[in-house]
Amino acid sequence: MKILKLLITLSLSIYIVGCLKRDDVTPEKENIAESNSSYQNNASYARTVRVTFPEERASTPPLPEMVERRRFNLNSIYSPILNGYYSKSYRLKKFIDDMSSRYSMSREYLYGLFSTVSRDVKALEKYHVIGDIKTAKTRTSRVGSWDRYPRFVTADRVAKGVEFWRKNRYWLDKAYRVFGVAPEYIVGITGVETNYGRNTGKHRLLDTLTSLALEYKRRSKFFTTQLENYILLTKEQGLNPLNIYGSYGGAFGMVQFMPDSYRKYAIDFDGDGVADLFNPADAIGSVANFFINKGKWIPNMPVAMRVLYPKARFNALPTGYKTEYSQDYLMSLGMRPTGDFGGYRGPVSLIKLSKYDRDELWWGTKNFYAIARYNPRDYYVMSVHLLAQAVKRAYFGR
Hints:
Layout: H1 2-23, H2 27-41, H3 90-103, H4 107-114, H5 121-126, H6 133-137, H7 145-148, H8 155-167, H9 169-179, H10 183-194, E1 203-204, H11 205-215, H12 220-237, E2 245-246, H13 259-265, H14 280-293, E3 304-308, E4 320-325, H15 327-332, E5 336-337, E6 348-354, E7 359-364, H16 366-372, H17 378-396
Antiparallel strand pairs: 1-2, 3-5, 3-7, 4-6, 6-7
Helix pairs in contact: 8-10, 8-17, 9-14, 10-17, 11-12, 12-13, 16-17
């Protein structure tokens, strides 16, 4: 009996101590243990956290309200006959016939639309269709052409670029996440094209595109295509075709898309149901979409790098964004890189900027070519590149 009582007493002691020890385990500790166990079991699912400084943290804009947009009533434009400046044009009448048959558009609507057209004299003069035509045919010396090219990298434009970046950081970051296009080049495009939306053009597009399509014979096919896309675009989006203004070349919006590019590459980036290129968010997303889909932009690849050359002038090879050479071959001709080119070692295009005292040489990558799809001129691409880099340095304080 004594042994049995001793065993019962010992068992009770062990049970009480165990209960006391279990009370020491708080619910928080149990949750942590369960959380660690869960993390270890799902280790392949990790979060990527982007750290920003408090003063640089971009606030997320509120989601736009899905408001029913009032579409322009196309039936308000009507005429039983064709009037206006180009009413006698056989080519315009043929264009109207084609639009009516191909897209089932009302002939009376098209008559009414083109009856409002006025001849865009300034656009025709810009393209030397009228006016001092001889000047356009005279070949001027290319020496110093880069020095004469409009300056886009100015203190004022760089400051406005920094302001644009800060104001639209959320959309620029989103464009980088979605498309992989570096923010500075979207800022550069917007700065070169319209000074960040401050100068989107004063030409009524219907007048401009009609005048160029009918009178600019050398590029009639191009501008006829743009006129067709403009009419289709305004119909699709319910826009007033009589009241949209842009450049003398027919481009419009903050980033100056031509009508065919607008229909192909403009996107509704802020989710309000409308792809509006006068809206910074949509303009930013649309440039990135253009670069990726038409330009074949390659994320994280540099754009251009200046190289040194021992002679004042360079005429040994063809130059331009369409050229392609190996870096080793160009270095064998005496060129020397000014940096590590972000580690890029692939083929490059050779870009020559003619200054009064010497030729300035640059190497361009496939992303240089991507920007050239926006405007196929070396000097334009270089202006975008230089402005982009200047704004980036100012934005980050370097």
